[in-house]
Amino acid sequence: MHLKNVLLLLLVACSFSLSSIAQVGTLLIKGPYSNEEIDFTHEYPVAHIFNESSEFFMVLEDYDINYQGTTIELPIGSYTIEIYLEEDYLAQTLRNIEIHLGEITDVTLSGITIYHYTEPVETQNSITQKRWVQFWDLNLATGNDFINRNPNFNSHYNIGYTFNSLYILSRNFSVGPIVGTNLNFTHFNKSGYIETSYEHKTERYMYWNLNAGFVFRIAVFNQYENDGWLGGVLDLGMKYNLPLLFKHVQNINGKTKVTTRGIHEYTDLSAFVRLGYSPITLTCEYRLTDFLQSPYHEQPRIKLGLSFLIPYYY
Predict the structure, then answer these.
(1) CA angle 106, 110, 113 (to 5 degrees)
(2) Nearest 5 degrees, angle CA 130-CA 52-CA 174?
(3) What is the per-residue pLDDT across 86-117, written as a single tens digit (0 to 9) for each?
(4) What distance, in Å, lies between the first and last C-alpha atoms of the chain?
(5) Contact 227, 193 (CB under 8 A)
(6) Where are the beta strands (DSSP E) in 4-45?
(7) Strand residue runs (E) in the chain
(8) Distance CA 32, CA 38 (A)
(9) How many CB atoms are located within 10 Å of the residue 173 CB?
(10) Are 244 and 268 in contact (CB under 8 A)?
(11) What's the sign of the alpha-carbon dihedral 223, 229, 235, 239?
């Protein structure tokens, strides 16, 4: 795959991600002016909100539903609101409550009046639905010969971390940018030395980079709840690795070191998959492009390892 095509694909994916982020509207829900207006026997009702797939979305407690109203930011779509009194008594069910892009959907429980408008409103309460999942990914990986079937190197080890900031598109899908850094070590076999003009004791690469990219998450749990990160996940991503330091080190007869720098290009692009039960996942990374100058052997294309996902609270 040519680097130009990969970068174009990355640009299209990022554009789609940014366009998806804006797909929200506002629900304004108001209670009665007094309990007698709709024969409430409790102080105020409790509202359970379900999405168009009849999956539980969130709950509004009785103190959130009053005559001054409460605003909630919701993804666009159709919702069902169940009104409960006295804890478990279902008093009313409001179906097909439509949330439109950039509009306010006003639901008033006194006679159940529903209408849409775009003007801002002042309410006593404002509830902002959780929209971001943010966490650190500490990853440990290897790219040894049994994975890559390359006789030129003996071992490859990687340690790094990335910061992930995912925007929740729905209860099961999220997307967002990542930034981080990685440190890699590649050790060569005696039969696969790059430099053969003199006797070696060891020969290796050391590679340190900064990286940035994006990740798309599929979660098997409701990301609006449970801090949005604990449970089964499948993450698909792509990142560009910017070399900060790359050097080829030779240890000659255990005494003299020969270090060569400047042997890399700035074309290191990779794709990755994380699969598991967060906070621990299996990780597979595939390098899409070559970035070392001839005659230096490329680092392994495939790396396998573990990721430890550590939540970031803000």
Answers:
(1) 40
(2) 40
(3) 667 777 888 888 888 878 888 877 655 545 55
(4) 39
(5) no
(6) 24-30
(7) 24-30, 46-50, 56-60, 70-75, 77-85, 89-99, 104-108, 113-117, 125-127, 132-142, 153-168, 173-188, 202-219, 231-252, 256-261, 268-278, 280-287, 302-311
(8) 7
(9) 15
(10) no
(11) positive
Determine the Cα–Cα distance for residues 230 and 235; give it in Å rounded to an integer: 13
How many C-beta neighbours within 10 Å does residue 217 have? Answer: 25
Residue where the block lists tokens 């039969």: 191
For residues 177 and 109, give the distance between their C-alpha atoms in angstroms, rounded to a whole number: 41
**Nearest residue to 276 (alpha-carbon basis) of 238, 308, 237:** 308
**Residues 176, 6: Cα–Cα separation, whole Å:** 18
Are 150 and 143 spatial neighbours (Cβ–Cβ below 8 Å)? no
Write the pLDDT tens digit of every residue in 183-239.
Answer: 999 988 764 455 555 555 678 899 999 999 999 999 998 887 766 678 899 999 999
- What does residue 237 show for φ and ψ, rounded to 5 degrees? -150, 175
Whether the CA torsion 172, 131, 60, 121 is positive or negative: it is negative
Helix, coil or strand: residue 195: coil
DSSP secondary-structure letter at 262? -
Cis peptide before 32 (omega within 30 of 0): no
Sign of CA dihedral 25, 130, 214, 273: negative
CA distances from 284 to 185, 211, 311 (A): 17, 16, 21
Beta bridge partners of 306: 140, 282
Q: Tell me if residue 36 falls in helix, strand or coil.
A: helix
Query: What is the SS3 string spanning 219-233?
Result: ECCCCCCHHHCCEEE
Two tokens at 81? Answer: 């609101």
